[in-house]
Write a structure and sequence with these properties.
331 residues; 6-stranded parallel beta sheet; 6-stranded mixed beta sheet; alpha/beta; globular
Length: 331
């Protein structure tokens, strides 16, 4: 073979090699789709059987139903913005902050990451890629207050909060309204311990309320709620669960729970982000959408008089039908 023929043969071989797909990779295969990544930030441990646990269940539903890659961590105070930025840099498309305190940081960080959506549960600030969905938990708290107002023998009931934030104050406002609607002469006590992760402080505050006459106590204390339940059990008072269904708490003190049914809302939000249809705004999720409920503990149902059950059921119907608007603060 002469030199020219050899060069032509070699060139033809190179062209064939260049046109062939690499071994094991079919020609024309589409680029691998990037995973849909969702992160959750909570103010306390997701094992709290309450507020943070409810959000974690929503995150797991997103993973199961949408095939998302998920991650979560506790983050409060100065940690919030750093955690948001870290997840955004890692390609997370939805970062959910479970609480009012995550709304403002989401607004700030969202400016630097326009391709990531930041959503908080509660909060009034929004942007193109920043929003909130507010659970109308006040409705459940109102029914708890109505039950307490009707059943209290002392005419004194209590509310124990951990962190003093607008969203918690709003639920307490609704509880108070429910109590006074049922018993205008009732006395409603309120205390904030300043720490939703400290059961000892919550227990001490509850014991003081019970000593002052309270025989029904509701909480917004996150992981510290166990202190409320333990105090009620030891001192013979009834407790209400909040955020999640806490009726089965080992203390045996929980007579009913005002709960958030969060999974459908979490999945619907994530689906909007995944499909690119999300628009910044605030969605109010209440009983009419199946997002809020008030559930009596089956093990204690016999302790609730029939007339009280009927009264609470009628109030529930009025709320769902839009005939009763439960008070809530705007923030």
């Amino acid at each position: 073979m002469n030199q020219r023929a050899f060069l032509l043969s070699a060139l033809a071989a190179l062209v064939l090699i260049g046109c062939s797909a690499p071994a094991g990779k079919p020609s024309g295969e589409a680029p691998k789709e990037e995973p849909f990544k969702v992160a959750l930030l909570t103010p306390g441990p997701v094992s709290d059987a309450g507020w943070s646990a409810m959000a974690y269940e929503g995150l797991m539903a997103i993973k199961d139903e949408l095939g998302a890659e998920v991650n979560n961590q506790e983050a409060g105070g100065t940690q919030i913005k750093d955690a948001m930025r870290s997840y955004a840099r890692q390609g997370y498309k939805l970062i959910f902050g479970h609480g009012f305190e995550y709304n403002e940081p989401g607004m700030e960080v969202g400016k630097d990451f326009p391709d990531t959506v930041f959503v908080s549960s509660s909060g009034g600030q929004t942007a193109t890629n920043v929003g909130a969905f507010r659970f109308y938990l006040e409705q459940g708290f109102y029914l708890a207050g109505a039950m307490a107002g009707k059943m209290s023998k002392s005419g004194v009931v209590g509310m124990v909060g951990g962190d003093d934030v607008p969203s918690i104050r709003s639920t307490f406002k609704a509880f108070r309204a429910g109590v006074l609607a049922a018993n205008p002469n009732a006395k409603v006590q309120e205390v904030f311990t300043g720490n939703g992760q400290d059961p000892a402080k919550a227990k001490q505050a509850t014991e003081q309320m019970i000593a002052a006459g309270a025989d029904f106590v509701i909480h917004q204390a996150n992981a510290a709620a166990q202190g409320v339940f333990d105090a009620c059990k030891e001192k013979g008072a009834y407790a209400f669960g909040a955020n999640a269904d806490q009726n089965a708490n080992p203390s045996g003190a929980v007579i009913a729970s005002a709960i958030i049914v969060g999974k459908p809302a979490f999945v619907a939000l994530a689906k909007q982000v995944k499909e690119g249809t999300f628009k910044g705004g605030i969605a109010l999720m209440g009983m009419d959408k199946g997002a809020i409920d008030f559930v009596v503990n089956p093990a204690m149902a016999a302790k609730v008089p029939a007339d009280v059950t009927a009264y609470v059921d009628e109030l529930r119907k009025q709320i769902v039908d839009g005939k009763l608007t439960v008070p809530k603060d705007e923030f």
